[in-house]
Amino acid sequence: MIVKIDVKGYKSIKNQSIELRPINILIGSNGVGKSNFISIFSLIRNLYDRNLGDYVIQKGGADSFLYFGKKQTQQIDIDFFFGSDFSNQTNRLIISLAESQDSLYIKSLDTAFNSYGKWHFHNYAKSVREFSLKGIQYGQGYYVNNRLKEFEVYHFHDTGDKSPMKGTSNINDNLMLKHNGSNVAAFLYYLQEKHPKHFVRIEKTIKSIAPFFERFVLSPDRLNENQIRLEWREVGEPDAYFNANHLSDGTLRFICLATLLMQPSPPKTIIIDEPELGLHPVAISKLASLIRKASEEVQIIVSSQSVYLVDYFEPEDILIADREEKETVFNRLNKVELNSWLQDYSLGEVWEKNIIGGQPSNM
């Protein structure tokens, strides 16, 4: 898992060392920098895919990434520490990005391996526009490559009429669930055919929060066998036709979340941006259970604004984002320090009372 991330000069993050655990629920008020932290993973994913330049342009240019812009900050430094636990840091990815012509280039990209307490470094790139570890099949780069290839930020927010989740997808687009759920029908069909036990568990979980839902009806389009659409059957209506357009926004999002967290081989690190959006409290409770269960095998990083979701986790699972003197700071909660409060209040209520921070400063 990712044991720690050191970040300097990135957006609102001036200089922070953020330790991570199997479960990391990131909370804080609007505008403090939660999204900036989550976007680090999107940045690294685009760098990995040799798409750094286009990504920086799409997001507003170099000034949008450098702490208070290029007049104040000339370089972004990001250092990922990987390991099985906090005391076993085995690999690192060290990236420095610098500004040029309102874009960012890779000033240096290094990896490191810890052997008997000593870090051994290897440089892979200097002063290049694009570079990827994707094709490296040997040495330190190979081990870091296996960590990076699954970096993906999932956000199932778009449930409008033109939502990618509601359209058709190629039936063979089933290697992994995409970040926006656009191939959820194809991926579920793959699970139905190749991993039926996991598929049935997903169906039962959806039924537990949507009692009108009976089961999925997934098969290739009869007129185009390369395409598939998310179709389902409603309880008591065996002859009626229903697809994703007939689902509520919350149910459609929950289908994607359940599929992501209950698949047989989930990504090693799952990053989800505000998964509680549009969910009923009962669905949020079920989501919390899915997160805890998945964290037994993979690492979960969630950005959330839900008091209901926070209530289902331990204080040590919660990472507070706040602003102090024009920069984002991160603090992990400590259960011992909160014992007196937790005797009378839930963790969510303690957050609402602004005891732990993560609320607007004028509350």
What does this structure look like?
GO terms for molecular function: ATP binding; ATP hydrolysis activity. The chain has 363 residues and is an alpha+beta fold. It has a domain at 159-266. Helices cover 28% and strands 31% of the residues. The chain has 10 helices and 17 strands. The chain has helices spanning 34-48, 52-58, 139-148, 184-194, 196-209, 249-262, 281-294, 307-310, 335-342, 347-352, and strands at residues 2-10, 13-19, 23-27, 75-85, 88-100, 103-115, 118-128, 153-154, 169-170, 213-216, 227-228, 231-234, 237-243, 269-273, 299-303, 318-324, 327-332. The strands form 4 sheets. Strands 2-1-4-5-6-7 form a 6-stranded antiparallel beta sheet, covered by helices on one side. Strands 8-14-15-3-16-17 form a 6-stranded mixed beta sheet, with helices on both faces. A 3-stranded antiparallel beta sheet has the order 10-12-13. β1 and β2 (13-19) form a beta hairpin. α4 crosses α5 (196-209) and α5 (196-209) packs antiparallel against α6. The radius of gyration is 22 Å and the shape is globular. The two termini are 36 Å apart.
